[in-house]
Specification:
Layout (H helix, E strand, L loop, with lengths): L1 H13 L6 H36 L7 E4 L4 E5 L10 E6 L4 E4 L8 H4 L9 E3 L5 H4 L7 E4 L1 H9 L7 H8 L35 E2 L5 E3 L4 E6 L8 E5 L4 E5 L16 H12 L5 E4 L7 H15 L3
Parallel strand pairs: 4-5, 5-6, 6-7, 11-12
Antiparallel strand pairs: 1-2, 2-3, 3-4, 8-9, 9-10, 10-11
Helix pairs in contact: 1-2, 7-8
Bound molecules: zinc ion (ZN) (2 copies).
The site of one zinc ion has 4 residues, from loops.
């Protein structure tokens, strides 16, 4: 601002006619203000980049971490076939961290992202499919819906070979090509895909519709929304309108034809979601989206499965 004052005095000295002075001085002031804001913006961008570089040190190539804002980190597995490449979400509370789902379990999370375990997080499993629970045995405290607990205890069907996986899950490829291997690179040279399995695990905390989880300054409500599987759950942070939806809803073809799927239940879950007031949905697969898209996806499912 001091520069503007100096310029005003210079202008006063050199231009006796005052008609054009005021707009020019105001213009110069706005210009300088804009320049300052732009510089501050660049500085903020710079420090953001710097902070990200800090978390990069914890990463290996297998997992990708992205800052989703509001102390939420999205973790994904880019080397996994898109059918199984899931998101999981690391939430930081004042008292405790929570991880929603845990990926495929091909690479140990504790070695790849040690920071994830620093505050003894709880892992919450949206449902018992390999792409969401593979890494969950690494956590001491596991939460899920009781309808998924038995499958978790006996061992979730799993394979990295497409044909074997389809067979174990009861997926009908319906003439579509089946990927030979579900990962596009080996995580380490000696890795044996045939040795991959999801270890059986117990659930330490059973969750049902309406249960609340308080992480300190961050409270989440459990929504039981069956259909994809009987014990599929989503989590809603009401304060921010953030929904973590697992495989119940994402921006892609929704799977309701597995042996334990239930289309009638799925439709009821979608009717609920079509009317849910949220600001953002962080799903189990693909990108995040807003309430308008949530409603469109839910209504598209209801149309697709409607009897007409
Ligand atoms: Zn699933
Ligand atoms: Zn999934």
């Amino acid at each position: 601002m001091a520069v503007v004052v100096v310029m005003a005095f210079v202008w006063e000295a050199i231009a006796p006619d005052g008609d054009l002075r005021a707009p020019l001085i105001i213009g110069a002031a706005y210009g300088l203000l804009g320049f300052g804001m732009w510089r501050r913006h660049l500085c903020r961008q710079g420090s953001k980049r710097h902070r990200r570089t800090g978390t990069l040190a914890d990463m290996v190539d297998w997992y990708t971490q992205a800052d989703a804002g509001g102390d939420i980190i999205r973790i994904s597995e880019p080397h996994v076939n898109e059918l199984l490449s899931a998101n999981f979400w690391w939430l930081r509370g004042n008292d405790r961290d929570m991880v929603i789902d845990a990926g495929l379990g091909v690479v140990a999370l504790r070695e790849a992202i040690p920071g994830l375990f620093e505050r003894d997080p709880m892992v919450l499993l949206t449902h018992a499919h390999l792409d969401h629970v593979g890494g969950a045995a690494e956590f001491a405290d596991r939460a899920a819906h009781p309808a998924e607990a038995e499958l978790l205890a006996t061992g979730v069907p799993a394979s990295l070979y497409g044909a074997e996986l389809y067979d174990k899950l009861g997926i009908d490829a319906a003439g579509e090509p089946v990927p030979e291997l579900m990962i596009d690179v080996l995580p380490s040279p000696g890795y044996d895909p045939a040795a991959y399995r999801v270890e059986p695990m117990t659930v330490s905390r059973m969750l049902d519709d309406g249960d609340r989880i308080d992480l300190g300054g961050r409270e989440l409500t459990v929504l039981h929304l069956p259909g994809h599987t009987p014990g599929s759950i989503a989590l809603l942070e009401e304060r921010t309108g953030t929904l973590y939806s697992g495989d119940i809803i994402y921006d892609g073809y929704l799977i309701d034809n597995l042996p334990n799927s239930d289309v009638a239940a799925y439709r009821r879950s979608m009717e609920f979601l079509a009317d849910l007031d949220v600001s953002v949905v962080h799903p189990g697969h693909g990108h995040s989206f807003d309430r308008t898209r949530l409603r469109q996806l839910a209504e598209a499912y209801l149309r697709r499965t409607g009897s007409g």
